[in-house]
């Protein structure tokens, strides 16, 4: 087993990054991104509920991609979505984050199902099921799921030959499921480091 580059619970190996992609110490109070030194992915870091910023963990979005490759595009403003941009959907959120150049990058995207599962921490004894030392502002609802969208459409839920659902992962329980694309879900963006 190779030595960890950064730190993290159990087999995780994370490094905190500031707004220009420089590594920062673990005692730093704020960071913008987290690099997974095992997978080579860089993850968006969220801010807490009480901040009115683009990256606040309280915002929710409907799944939307207008490229037509995944069947039903989704909704530009789904049911019970709430955000600080005009249209509360994944496509517009990605565009806004990329226009601002989070951590000096402009190629942010929704993670695949497997990518999002890679930061799930099933060894946690309580919600949220993620290493909260590196992802501290992951919402941990005690009575309801907290779904985070993946980019993957689901084969379940077809209507008029078009996929109505997409996969999401609940970081409160660690479960995955498909949700209707119009449903409000959270977003944690990712990009490739290597």
Descriptors for this entry?
globular, mainly beta, Lcl C-terminal domain-containing protein, 3-stranded antiparallel β-sheet
Number of helices: 2
Shape: globular
* H-E order: EEEHHEEEEEE
As laid out across the biggest beta sheet, the strand order is 1-2-3-9
Largest sheet: 4 strands, antiparallel
Helix content estimate: under 10%
N-to-C span: 21 Å
> What average pLDDT do the residues reach?
88
How many strand elements? 9
Question: In summary, what is this structure?
Answer:
By secondary structure, the chain is mainly beta. The protein has two helices and nine strands; from the N terminus they run E-E-E-H-H-E-E-E-E-E-E. It has one domain.
List the helices and strands and how they pair.
Blueprint: E1 14-17, E2 33-36, E3 41-44, H1 90-100, H2 113-117, E4 147-153, E5 158-159, E6 162-163, E7 165-170, E8 176-180, E9 190-192
Antiparallel strand pairs: 1-2, 2-3, 3-9, 4-7, 5-6, 7-8
